[in-house]
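Lab notebook, bench 4. The sequencing result for the construct came back, and we need a structural model before the next group meeting so we can plan mutations. Quick request posted to the team channel:

Model the 3D structure of this chain.
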Amino acid sequence: MATEKCFSQGSAAPSPVSEGYIRLYSMRFCPFAQRARLVLNAKGIKHDIININLRDKPDWFLEKNPLGLVPTLETPAGEVVYESPITCEYLDELYPEKKLLPSSPFGKAQQKMMLEHFSKVTPYFYKIPTGRKNGEDVSGLETELKEKFAKLNEDLANKKTEFFGGDTITMIDYMMWPWFERMEIFELKHCLDHTPELKKWSERMSEDPTVKATMHSTDTYKAFYKSYVEGKPNFDYGL
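Done. Here's the predicted structure in token form:
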């Protein structure tokens, strides 16, 4: 699309999805939507992106996804798919070139189990900064997060691989990455101090061309999250 600026209540609906493309409804700073952007980029899928104002959603978007969540995918046939793990698996099946998920049922199950474990990690990225802002003692939460990271570190150490699915990046790495990209903004980098394998994984991921193509600078993230914490998120920051 011609603009990265977000569509809000009252915005005209975009034109139908072009043949040969898939559309992603996204928000530039959302880690869940970034999962889908990573997969689209990694697989070289032709796509367009419509960014949504998540505080003031257009009615036409809510008609497509009544939950109003990003990421949401739409095909030229008008098929709509949402929820980040589902959108990413759907993309991997719909575009079978350069598969990101393992071909074996057990390999797929392993990645899904790991993703289920990681879903218990992501809330700490919000609980800890919120607690700090409210003047609470977050040392207990930080200890819990470090324990979760220690398990991930152990997993890498046991596998003796560079990434969680082997020696190349696979789906599970992209599913986890967006939160690690935001470690500095949330002032959580010290939680990696005693997990050397996880730290190395994070450094390798940051060098991946797909990751570089979807990331924002730390200053941009900081400015957006400042506006978010103040209750007036600037979804178009930097445009």
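The mean pLDDT is 96.
Will bring this to the meeting.
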